[in-house]
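Format notes (please read before filing issues)

Several people have asked whether sequences and structure tokens are stored in separate files. They are not. Every record keeps both together, in the order shown below: the sequence lines, then the token lines. Line labels are part of the format and must not be stripped during preprocessing.
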Amino acid sequence: MRFLSRRLVMPYDLNYAGSLFGGRVLQWIDEESAIYAICKLDTNVLVTKHIGAVTFESPAMQGDIVEFGLVTKSVGRTSITVTCLVRNKVTKKTICLADDIVFVKLDPDTREPTPHGKTLEMFAEATF
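Then the structure lines:
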């Protein structure tokens, strides 16, 4: 798994208990995963179809740097499924794991699912 992006936990990212708000990290996961899928499929006409199990394991606090690790789990005819691991940059402790995040490529005119022409094997050697 490659860790491709980082964010600094700011005061406006916190919940009432003073730790990173779960809704904020879910927003970041969706955005980071979408960017990853867009780069892999060479298209920005994607939608989030599904986010599977999300497991929160440890808190992040103000001032922590969190990083996002992403990996392609599977590739369908019109979709790509990724896993996103969010961890503390310094301690490497897992903050959150989001599994089975599915993005679907849409035709820009009809907004219907359309084949992307990629396979999982195409990503085996790919690097950013």
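For reference, the curators noted about this record: The chain has a mean pLDDT of 93. DSSP finds two helices and six strands in the chain.
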